[in-house]
């Protein structure tokens, strides 16, 4: 007795004999062959040549033009409602003074933290209440803000800081970025020439900027429970300078 071997796969030679099952087998075979084809082609791709990595940067020093002052106070007592009322009165009086000179972009006013919490004895029994309230005034009119600091008597200065206005930061960032790009291009051309090439093309490039500190860096502190400033006594201020930097990094293809 003899047996004729029969293939389990249908022959792809005749389209008329293809069934859905045979088509699925063909799809599996085709997909399994793809990694081999991709690997073979990758092996034929030569590594990049005449490629150079470069970096250039630009920095500008600019005077900070935003002054920010935080005011605050703390109150405590046996009655929660009384403590809350004292905080509200102190904040309302400070807001009244601040709103008199408020001007968008020049003198901006906003309330900060307002909290009230119980005090406990060692046995876990409430024996009083304490709370705090704060107000923040910031803007580009440093003279008006510093004078306001002497007029607010119900809150004490807790923090003073300087920064850059958004439009100032964006303007300086644009300038330093343009300078960094120009230096990158000059360096790319010069370095290519030193290696005997006549030109270059950019393969990839990254541009980044550091706009300096934002308003309210903590440069001066005082206890919020300290005595307020003397009436009408302006706060001495000096903004100082900060730096804004931009950098460009990437790779070039040197060409002949």
Give a description of the structure.
By secondary structure, this protein is an alpha+beta fold. 34% of the residues lie in helices and 35% in strands. Among the domains are: 51-61 and 169-210 and 247-255, no CATH class; 66-164 and 214-230, Alpha-Beta Plaits (2-Layer Sandwich). The chain has helices spanning 20-44, 80-101, 142-151, 166-194, and strands spanning 51-63, 66-77, 108-120, 126-139, 156-163, 199-210, 220-221, 241-255. The termini are far apart. Residues 5-9 and 214-229 have low confidence and may be disordered.
Under CATH at level 1, the class of the domain at 66-164 and 214-230 stands as Alpha Beta
The CATH topology annotation of the domain at 66-164 and 214-230 reads as Alpha-Beta Plaits
In which order are the strands of the major sheet placed?
A: 3-4-2-5-7
Q: What's the CATH architecture of the domain at 66-164 and 214-230?
A: 2-Layer Sandwich
Number of strands: 8
Estimate the mean pLDDT confidence: 83
Order of helices and strands: HEEHEEHEHEEE
Structural class: alpha+beta
**Largest beta-sheet characterization:** 5 strands, antiparallel
Poorly predicted ranges (pLDDT <50, ≥5 residues)? Answer: 5-9, 214-229
Query: How many distinct helices?
Result: 4
Strand content: 25-35%
Q: Concise description?
A:
The chain has helices spanning 20-44, 80-101, 142-151, 166-194; strands at 51-63, 66-77, 108-120, 126-139, 156-163, 199-210, 220-221, 241-255. By secondary structure, it is an alpha+beta fold.
């Amino acid at each position: 007795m003899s047996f004729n071997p029969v293939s389990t796969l249908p022959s792809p030679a005749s389209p008329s004999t293809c069934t859905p099952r045979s088509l699925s087998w063909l799809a599996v075979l085709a997909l399994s062959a793809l990694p081999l084809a991709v690997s073979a082609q990758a092996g034929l791709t030569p590594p990049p040549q005449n490629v150079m990595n470069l970096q250039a940067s630009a920095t500008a020093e600019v005077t900070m033009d935003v002054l920010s002052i935080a005011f605050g106070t703390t109150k405590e007592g046996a009655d929660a409602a009384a403590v809350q009322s004292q905080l509200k009165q102190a904040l309302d009086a400070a807001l009244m003074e601040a709103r008199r000179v408020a001007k968008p972009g020049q003198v901006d006013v906003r309330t900060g933290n307002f909290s009230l919490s119980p005090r406990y004895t060692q046995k876990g029994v409430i024996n009083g209440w304490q709370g705090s309230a704060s107000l923040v005034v910031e803007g580009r009119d440093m003279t008006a803000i510093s004078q306001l600091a002497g007029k607010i008597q119900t809150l004490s200065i807790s923090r003073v800081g300087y920064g850059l206005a958004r439009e100032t930061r964006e303007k300086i960032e644009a300038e330093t970025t343009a300078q960094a790009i120009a230096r990158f291009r000059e360096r790319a051309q010069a370095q290519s020439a030193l290696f005997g090439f006549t030109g270059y093309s950019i393969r990839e490039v990254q541009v980044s900027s550091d706009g300096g500190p934002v308003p309210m860096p903590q440069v001066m502190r005082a206890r919020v429970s300290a005595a307020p400033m003397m009436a009408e006594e302006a706060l001495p201020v000096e903004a100082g300078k900060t730096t804004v930097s931009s950098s460009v990094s990437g790779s070039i293809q040197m060409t002949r």
